[in-house]
Amino acid sequence: MESLYDVFRRRGYNRRDFLKSVLLLTASLGLPPSAFARAVKVLDLKPKPVVIWLEFQDCAGCSESFIRSTSILPSDVLLDYISLEYHETLMSPSGFYAEEAKKEAMERYKGEYILIVEGSITPKDKGIYCTVSGKSNVELLKEAAKDAKLVIAVGSCASWGGIPHAEPNPTGAIPVSQVLEGKQVVNIPGCPPIGDVIVALIMGLVITGKAPELDSFGRPKTFYGQTIHDRCYRRPFYNAGKFASSFDDESAKRGYCLYKLGCKGPITRNACATVRWNGGLSFPIQSGHPCFGCSEPDFWDRGFIYSPLSVVEGEFSWKTALAGLAVGTAIGTASALINKKLQEGK
Q1: Which residue, 46, 2, 47, 49, is CA-closest to 148?
Q2: Which residue of 33, 60, 91, 226 has the lowest C-beta tally within 10 Å?
Q3: pLDDT > 90 fraction of the chain, expressed in percent and rounded
Q4: Does residue 312 contact residue 320 with C-beta atoms inside 8 Å?
């Protein structure tokens, strides 16, 4: 079986390109410099990681983000190196032949394959709102997860229920982890998540042979350990009290902080400000739009995308009032910590 380096060469890339990709990978995963040589050796020798990708209640945006990952591995190398045994959107076979291919892959690679799930799960009314080949999504998920080496929930729908979970949630959408209680699930939230993060986690499993360290929400600490606000390049304007008041005023043209336009960066944990999308080209704040916190649970139900964190718009309800209280408390705590640090630095 081809090694990753073999795939690079076949695609016209040289050894230098290969080493640059491995260096980017180890850096992205937060591995020490001493891990570089081991990573090169492992990716030269280990067989392709086998991936089974299931889609349930989703828009396929996470798949789109994945195949456009370009920073760590070029797309043509990625799709050659990962043995993608089943993916309804990307694979050529359909119907009976596709389902047989999945069944055969689960038997052949029992206990070795990575199961990636995109989309929320709909158990309501016996799962009738999402079925494939006559089976409910709940049944299909349990069947595939049973012998998987690792289960990864990709996107906010699979991680939290996402937009389908928003009120009134007509299909009873829930996250993958709620169906697979007792089995470890790695959540990679985002709408969509960053493609390079998905690739890095899969390759990291190949290198280390184990799941990454997770936070209390099941998110990899390497990529979700800090808020977007922590790493935002507009942070100095926030500290200086310089804010854009509209999308087209002079302060917006100068790149001032988007906090007053509803930016949720201070309460959103993700790697957008560092990894970014499309080969590290940009992310929403860099494009002039405030972060609306898509990688946090229940982001859609908060309902105040373009209002500052300290303001809750709309008619009064206990839900929105409590949400505002929680956000205000979080901001107050964060401000107190920042002020304390500033005082300590004097």
Answers
A1: 49
A2: 33
A3: 62
A4: yes
Tell which residue, 312, 313, 315, has the closest CA to residue 325: 312
Strand order in the sheet with 50-55: 83-87, 50-55, 114-118, 150-154, 185-188
- 193 DSSP assignment: P
3-class SS of residue 131: strand
Phi-psi region of 276 (alpha: psi -120 to 50; beta: other; left: phi over 0): left
Q: Per the structure block, which two tokens stand in for 252?
A: 């917006």
Phi/psi region, residue 6 (left: phi>0; alpha: psi -120 to 50; beta: rest), is alpha
Q: Which two tokens stand for residue 276?
A: 């970014």
**Could you give the 3-state DSSP secondary structure of residue 55?**
strand
Residues in the chain, pLDDT under 50: 312-318, 320-321, 324, 346
Of 200, 206, 213, 224, residue with least CA distance to 295: 224
- What token pair was written down for 42? 């492992």
Look-up: residue for tokens 């920042």? 338
257, β-bridge pairs: 243
- Global pTM value: 0.85
DSSP secondary structure string for all residues of 74-123: -HHHHHHHSEEEEETTT-S--HHHHHHHHHHHHHHTTTTPEEEEESBB--
Q: Name, in order, each residue with C-beta under 8 angstroms of 193's C-beta and a sequence gap of 6 or more.
A: 62, 65, 154, 155, 295
How many other CB atoms sit within 10 Å of the CB of residue 240? 10
Helix segments in the chain, DSSP class H: 4-10, 15-28, 35-45, 61-67, 75-81, 95-108, 124-127, 137-145, 155-160, 162-165, 176-179, 195-208, 221-224, 228-231, 235-239, 250-253, 299-302, 318-345
The model's pLDDT over 285-325, given as tens digits with 9 standing for 90+, comes to: 999 999 999 999 998 888 778 888 875 444 444 454 455 45
CB 56, CB 137: distance < 8 Å: yes
